[in-house]
Predict the structure of HTH araC/xylS-type domain-containing protein.
Amino acid sequence: MEQQMGIEVLETIGYDAEEATPYGDGRTASMNRRFALFRKERWFPHRKSVLRGMIVFSLFASIIPIVAVGFGSYEFSSAAIRKEVNQANGRLLDNAASSVDTMMQRIENNVIQMLLGSFFGSNLQELKRSNYAGFYSSIYQNLSALQNSNKEIRDVTLYVPEDGYLISPSTGGRRLSDEATRSQLAEQMAAEQPVRWTYAPFPFLSENDPYGVTLVSKVPLYAKEPIGLLVLHLDSGLLQQMIARYTSYDGENMLILNADGHIVAYLGDAVASGGLYSSLKGASGPETRFTYTWNRTPYLATSVTSPYSGWIYADLIPVRALNAKSRGIALITAGMVAGFLLLGLCLALWGSRRAYRPIARLLAQVKGNDAISADLDEIGFVQMRWTELSETTSLLQNRLNEQLPFIIEMFALQLMQGHFAHYSDSQLRGVLEQSGIPSGREGAVFLLAYDRAEGGEGRFTANDQGLIVFTLKNIAQHMMEEYGMSGIAVHLLSEQAAVWIWDDAEPETDGGDWQARFKAFAEAVRKAAAGYLKLPVTAGLSDCGVPSELPKLYRQAAIAVRSRILYGSGVSIAYTGSLLEEADDYRYPIEIEARFDDALRLGDAEETDKVLQEFAAYMRKAGDKPELIRMSYCQLLTSALRTAYLIGARQAERLDEERTGLYADIGRYRTIADLDAFIRGKIVAPIVEFVQGKRNQENERLIGKVVQFIDTNYHLDLSLDQCAELCGLSPYYLSKLFKKMTGASFIEYLTACRVERAKALLRESELPVGGIAERVGYQPKNFIRVFKKVTGMTPGQFREWSGEAR
């Protein structure tokens, strides 16, 4: 019997029974020793064992690093190739974008130069009335010259809405009868920008190209009431030719996408641009790289964004074409990994068996007749029963200790909220005694509330509301123990913490000192919380009363905290009966509101700030009702939004979308200073900025009009008064505005314009000096004096010098 048990033990720990017993046949024992290495049970027992864990751990410890190194080397080489290709593609895309941008800038400059030329810069309405045929003939000649000098232009057309006439070098002249197209062109003429690129299709263009881009310009360029609209369409085929020379891989695709995600030009397969554009737009940085899959084929996508047009230039190279270079590395890596895996497997099996031998001998001595469960290993069998008992005991004790404080806190919260108001005195006394709270002692409540720090500073963010209230409660709980006070701190759901303190001393021995200690303790807690949180913390203190009056004390503390809109945050506020009194004689300051609206209309930031200060000072004197003050600020906000609409501020639409959030913010702020800062930063600043910006735009337009008038009529006897009358301004104001916008006075600019034209006539013609003087608007004698003052030489000397220079 004992022999049989010994055999079972040896077989359990992995030793051969016949090899160990002295009774077996010698040859059998020898064969067992020879083939024991190949027994499956010897290496991998059916039950859990330390040996199996050691073998598995050794295998993983040897296999994982080898596989990681192999895959890592392959991924590193592939990533290096992708990075190199991506950098090269980035440079190619930059070159492609630069070529296309240069071409677009050149065409735009040529169009502007043509529109600023002598023909389009003249009075086209007068020319049309006086010489109708010559007017359209000149337009045809200028458009033909523009198209001939720019091979990228597919078609160029000038639309004259007064005649409903289209004239183009490609299709000649024809009338436009389609009302939809006329409306489309009218919208383009009504746009603010005089010259712009667009992607809208125009049906009247010959052989309308679904891709490409169109340049639209008013004619004349800066006219308030243009006579026509110039529509110029670029050939997308030429764009394809420009980007074709930057591709080098089989199956490579290159696309140009506009700011709306539409294809301007593409090369290769017609890749769907919707998902690709979302990926390109969602990436950050001026240059991005990612993998994009289309038609089950992964591509390496590289993109750059043009700073001129905002277009996205994307290059898609099939990953299989990139991986061709790294396939040789993959084969070598796979062979090395396989060899090292085989070696690691052998070493792991041999080493595990060697390390397990001491454990097997120890188990043979201590196991006895007990069977080991298949779910346990040798060491786990020893620890199992002790662990079960210890865990059960600890779990029950921890659950009891964890739940008791929360139960008492929830009871105090329900008591403050009046859930036990229907209890009789005896019933309430019993509930209090069960929670360890003295029923006959006087107590008081104070609430702790935090506000946002000025400038957003502090150690917590806006999303840490629950954490901040939890910190307030814990600080109060800790300081109660430090100061020897008895009470309960409660985490409220209203972004506040409540602290209920009661007096431990007998009423006849207290001597009235407890109320003073309560106020001092509340102030100490408030200061400690504010110092730790780096936030303004306000404490609202109630009167004193017995536990049955706790709901009333809680409401008093809440009213005291709300009154910080009057007294400011970061202080301790004791409840007084006056906090519930309404200001019956309160009157909304309508005269201050009227001055506020006037300052907004004028964009006067200084006056607006002054009026807001007066409004805040009036609110501080208005009364003790926080709701009344918030209502007044809501009315001021409504007045500001109405003013924004009346002056046509662009911000008005955004402010209207945020209207609900704006009024909600007024209810969230706790002090008059916060409400004043909110109105100042959120409402006043954008409206004042808009008014001032609109004024600057109008000044630029007027000065541009004067400059164009001087450049066209420099040969006439011009004066500052004429230009002022043209703009509807006073000469004095125009002179100051002209100097500010151009950097030169009116006379200096006119003189420079005339001298430059005189230089051109002296170089390019044989006209006498007197004739040139008359052409540029001078008397000969004055001309020579002015010319020498500006250039340092007489007109004759300049002509002689120019001839020698040629």
Q: What stands out?
A: Confidence is low (pLDDT under 50) at residues 1-31, 33-44. The two ends are 128 Å apart (CA to CA). The longest strand covers residues 297-305. Residues 590-693 form one domain.
